[in-house]
Amino acid sequence: MPNPAFETIAPPFTTFRFEVVLDLADPPPGLSNPVCNAAFAECDGLEMSIEPKTIREGGNNRIQTHRVGPVSYGQLTLRRGMTPNLDLWRWFLAAATPGHDPTASGAVTMWDADGTPRITFVLTECLPVKMRGPSLNASNGLVAIEEIQLVYATLDIRPAGQGGGLGLDVGGGIGVGADVSVSAGLSIGASVTGNAGLSGGAGFSASVGASAGLSLG
């Protein structure tokens, strides 16, 4: 007789099937939405925590009572293979220029093993705080990786395709112009080879060798 517990356990998602979409609140001249779409090899920093307030009762040294404090959020780090597309750099420079809203709305969507979008992390008021160019080394042939770090105001998680005002429409397939095969092209090990095409310039693919193009909007 099969164990009924196994019939109610959903398989975990793999970390290489994901898409990142950033939509600027006030796109400066030369930029349009989405500022970057799906073309990231790594995404780290989807994190929130509560700072507890500890209260001790007088005369009772064995108990400490905790009360809920403010919620704090992590810092999102995105990495991708560097191409002639410099939109992220332009966004960072525009954020340092007064006169417009430099923030962006963000959505990180994960797919299951069948290529169906399942979970979306929704971020509000994303602000770029750090840009890093590739580490150059003439002795190896690794793909040049650029990095951007963002802070954000809130983090929410919901089933893919449920509202949020971010223009996501992934309930029955793939939204915002992304292709399912983009996930297959982004490997955990980031063992990139540089033979897939990005519409914004030369791109990269991972060891699974996806050949579909990644749209940069």
What does this protein structure show overall?
The chain has 217 residues and is mainly beta. The chain has one domain (11-54, 64-202): Pnp Oxidase, Chain A, CATH 2.30.110.20. Helices cover 6% and strands 34% of the residues. The protein has two helices and 14 strands. The strands form four sheets. Strands 1, 2, 3, 8, 9, 10, 11 and 12 form an eight-stranded antiparallel β-sheet that branches. Strands 4-7 form a two-stranded antiparallel ribbon. The chain has a two-stranded antiparallel ribbon with strand order 5-6. The chain is globular, with a radius of gyration of 20 Å. Mean pLDDT is 75; it is low at 164-217.
Helix content: under 10%
Order of SSEs: EEEEEEEEHEEEEHEE
What is the name of the CATH topology? Pnp Oxidase, Chain A
Q: Strand percentage, roughly?
A: 25-35%
Rounded to the nearest angstrom, the distance between the terminal CA atoms is 52 Å
How would a crystallographer describe the biggest sheet?
Answer: 8 strands, antiparallel
Tally of DSSP helical segments? 2
Task: Name the features.
217 residues; mainly beta; Pnp Oxidase, Chain A; eight-stranded antiparallel β-sheet; two-stranded antiparallel ribbon; 2 helices; 14 strands; 6% helix; disordered C terminus
Note the topology.
Blueprint lengths: L17 E7 L11 E2 L4 E3 L3 E3 L2 E4 L7 E4 L3 E3 L1 E7 L5 H9 L8 E8 L5 E16 L12 E7 L2 E6 L21 H4 L12 E2 L2 E2 L15
Antiparallel strand pairs: 1-2, 1-9, 3-8, 4-7, 5-6, 8-11, 9-10, 10-11, 10-12, 13-14
